[in-house]
Design a protein that fits this description.
The protein has about 260 residues and is an alpha/beta fold. Helix content is about 40%, strand content about 25%.
């Protein structure tokens, strides 16, 4: 059974069609790139999957179950986590607390325990802190655990956002332009990081990215959007030589 299915999904904003009739399937363990020119509808696809904007038409299914009507936090609890093109950390909170906050859906205690600081509360908080520290170690952020998230360099903020997404224990991770604003060295580090977390956490990953060197070296399969429609799907090698993709990115290719 596919992990994720988008069945003929469309999204309209008034009379403007942002995505039209998209069908997309992700198998467990795949690492797939969603690419296309600016304004092609890529982030709208992420927003439909995560419940921010429900599809105007069609449906999204996770492991065969429809996500229709679920609020974004319910979608996250179902097993889908994401990062954003513009980093959305709690910048006035510590690095550690940014990760711990994402874990509190599975905190293991109730309001009574929290108010009275019961033994159950203490044990659960220690467990969450240990799990958060393990994630920070994996993301090479342990030395920053007590610093404010907003004080981190840009590349480390990106890694922290990924750590926070992983803290929700997802089955599917959506990465929205994780290499945006990074220098070539940081992009190379990111490539190895994403490969590593897919392997170590057993994740399925859907990636939006404009850095073609990253996409071509990282993704097993690519889906190309243009004006809200999927114009090509295939391996990186197949996409590189696809005439419709070249036209979407470069304009009409002159013929001799």
């Amino acid at each position: 059974m596919p992990l994720l299915e988008c069945r003929n999904v469309s999204r309209y904003f008034g009379g403007l069609r942002a995505v039209g009739g998209l069908s997309l399937t992700l198998e467990p363990g795949e690492l797939v790139g969603l690419i296309g020119p600016n304004g092609a509808g890529k982030t709208t696809v992420f927003n439909m999957i995560t419940g921010i904007f429900p599809p105007t038409e069609g449906e999204v299914l996770l492991e065969g179950r429809s996500l229709a009507g679920l609020a974004p936090y319910r979608v996250t609890q179902s097993g889908i986590a994401r990062t954003f093109q513009n980093i959305r950390l709690y910048k006035e909170m510590s690095v550690l607390d940014n990760v711990r906050t994402a874990m509190h859906a599975d905190r293991g205690y109730g309001l009574f325990d929290a108010l009275l600081r019961t033994r159950r509360f203490g044990a659960a908080e220690r467990r969450l802190t240990e799990q958060a520290d393990a994630l920070l170690e994996r993301m090479k952020l342990s030395a920053r655990r007590d610093e404010m998230a907003g004080s981190l360099p840009y590349g480390e903020q990106r890694r922290l956002e990924i750590a926070r997404a992983l803290a929700t224990a997802p089955k599917l991770l959506l990465l929205d332009e994780p290499a945006a604003g990074m220098n070539p060295s940081e992009v190379g580090d990111l490539l190895e990081l994403v490969r590593g977390i897919q392997r170590d956490f057993g994740l399925t990953i859907l990636l939006i990215e404009h850095q073609m060197s990253l996409v071509m070296n990282l993704c097993q399969r690519l889906v190309v959007l243009d004006f809200g429609e999927a114009i090509a799907q295939g391996t990186p090698a197949e996409i590189q030589s696809n005439a419709r993709v070249l036209e979407a990115y470069l304009g009409k290719v002159a013929t001799a």
